[in-house]
């Protein structure tokens, strides 16, 4: 009983810090023409609400990809659409096509901040609390300390509530995935992690340990028996979750390719934030950009 009381206090402290940070400004406030990531998230609501699905990732007169074009996976787009329906109910001007570009007001700021907080309450914070409570061979005091450290991690709070993004959603799904496979609910854990990838492609960075752990589990059970059955089940749940998320974009080959181009913009070079990984580290010692032409870099990648 005491553990849950203390955990409630920790959650309230985490929420208080989050909302306190959200009272301050955000990236790009009052700075045309792009206005920062706050405007990017608002613009995605505008696009997903006013345009058909087939146009979400394509450049057009109504969807200028140079102006915060959608470049995250489908689940992010669906989240933006859900927020847009709420925004439409409160104030249609917030997501009006074209005319809402750069919209700023205290009411809209309150709405946008609230969407992040609700996402935290529904996905991220419950995963953190359950994860800390499920830690074995650790005292209640250490569980509370762990929860406090995670929920007060300044990087995530500043990015989501100051700069303005929804990183806690993808991290929350990933953490639910960790909880699932930790409790031998491998199928649910795989589903949760697939949702994390389909929300933000950067979760691919964590895909290798998930894959290796689950594959190792299959080997341990024996690939000629229960291990093979588990492997087939895992493959089915991964394929099914991706198909469901991407279904509207599988109608045409060009649709699928265009979404992939937006998610992995290698045309911008290997050092763009969504594709850079080992390249940035390697570049410290060897200036790849100065030595190799662009097309060779892409072949190497």
UniProtKB/TrEMBL annotation:
Residues 1-22 form the signal peptide. Keywords: Endoplasmic reticulum, Glycosyltransferase, Membrane, Signal, Transferase, Transmembrane, Transmembrane helix. It is found in: Endoplasmic reticulum membrane. InterPro entries: Glyco_trans_ALG6/ALG8 (IPR004856). Its main location: endoplasmic reticulum. The chain crosses the membrane at residues 110-132, 144-161, 173-197, 227-249. Its EC number is 2.4.1.-. One of its GO terms (cellular component) is endoplasmic reticulum membrane. It comes from the Eukaryota. Pathway: Protein modification; protein glycosylation. Belongs to the ALG6/ALG8 glucosyltransferase family. Dolichyl pyrophosphate Man9GlcNAc2 alpha-1,3-glucosyltransferase that operates in the biosynthetic pathway of dolichol-linked oligosaccharides, the glycan precursors employed in protein asparagine (N)-glycosylation. The assembly of dolichol-linked oligosaccharides begins on the cytosolic side of the endoplasmic reticulum membrane and finishes in its lumen. The sequential addition of sugars to dolichol pyrophosphate produces dolichol-linked oligosaccharides containing fourteen sugars, including two GlcNAcs, nine mannoses and three glucoses. This is Alpha-1,3-glucosyltransferase. It comes from Homo sapiens. The gene is ALG6.
């Amino acid at each position: 009983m005491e553990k849950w009381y203390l955990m409630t206090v920790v959650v309230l402290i985490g929420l208080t810090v989050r909302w306190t940070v959200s009272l301050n400004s955000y990236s790009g406030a009052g700075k045309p023409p792009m206005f920062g990531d706050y405007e990017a998230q608002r613009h995605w609501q505008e696009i997903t609400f006013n345009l058909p699905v087939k146009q979400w990732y394509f450049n057009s007169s109504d969807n200028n990809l140079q102006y915060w074009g959608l470049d995250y996976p489908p689940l992010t787009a669906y989240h933006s659409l859900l927020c847009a329906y709420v925004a439409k109910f409160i104030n249609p001007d917030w997501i009006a096509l074209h005319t809402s570009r750069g919209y700023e007001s205290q009411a809209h700021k309150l709405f946008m901040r609230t969407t992040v907080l609700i996402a935290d309450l529904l996905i991220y914070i419950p995963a953190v609390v359950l994860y800390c409570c499920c830690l074995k061979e650790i005292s209640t005091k250490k569980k509370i300390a762990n929860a406090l450290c995670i929920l007060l991690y300044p990087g995530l709070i500043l990015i989501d509530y100051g700069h303005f993004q929804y990183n806690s959603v993808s991290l929350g799904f990933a953490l639910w995935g960790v909880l699932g496979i930790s409790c031998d609910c491998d199928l649910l854990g795989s589903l949760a992690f697939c949702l994390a990838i389909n929300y933000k492609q950067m979760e691919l960075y964590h895909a290798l340990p998930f894959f290796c752990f689950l594959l190792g589990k299959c080997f341990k059970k024996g690939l000629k028996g229960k291990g093979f059955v588990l492997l087939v089940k895992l493959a089915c749940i991964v394929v099914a979750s991706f198909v469901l998320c991407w279904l509207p974009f599988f109608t045409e080959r060009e649709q699928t390719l265009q979404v992939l181009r937006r998610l992995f913009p290698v045309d911008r070079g290997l050092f763009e934030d969504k594709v850079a990984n080992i390249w940035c580290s390697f570049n410290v010692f060897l200036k790849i950009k100065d030595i190799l032409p662009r097309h060779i870099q892409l072949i190497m990648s």
